[in-house]
Specification:
This protein has a single domain, classed as 5'-nuclease (Rossmann fold, 3-Layer(aba) Sandwich), CATH 3.40.50.1010. The chain is α/β, with parallel strands linked by helices and 112 residues long. α2 packs across α5. It has five helices and five strands. The mean pLDDT is 93.
Length: 112
């Protein structure tokens, strides 16, 4: 990703469950951070409920849903989700959409 740093927003539960075996929350965070460093990207991982910790690259939805939090974010960003309804809600604030399974596969390949 030459040029400017891309902000990549990850729909955590969608990505975690997009491939078998499912990724744990910890695995997803570790893999996404490694990938972001490798790619020179800024990652924001959005979880339903509470985030695993209070790191600035993790965001919990509290009593709401991660989809609602993501749908309210200012763009531009790349959105990682396979959720078509969320993609429609975000619309053109997303410069690029990446499927959850594809992204998880890439994360796992970078970690090897």
């Amino acid at each position: 990703m030459p040029g400017r740093v891309h902000r990549v927003v990850v729909d955590a539960e969608n990505v975690r469950r997009s491939a078998w075996p499912n990724a744990s929350r910890t695995e997803l965070v570790e893999l996404a951070r490694t990938w972001a460093e490798h790619e020179g990207a800024e990652v924001l991982i959005v979880f339903d409920g509470a985030a695993p910790d209070d790191s600035p690259d993790l965001l919990g939805s509290g009593a709401g849903s991660a989809d609602d939090v993501i749908a309210e974010l200012d763009g531009p960003f790349w959105l990682v989700t396979s959720d078509r309804a969320l993609r429609e809600r975000v619309g053109d604030r997303a410069e690029r959409f990446i499927g959850g399974g594809s992204f998880l596969g890439e994360l796992r390949s970078v970690a090897c």
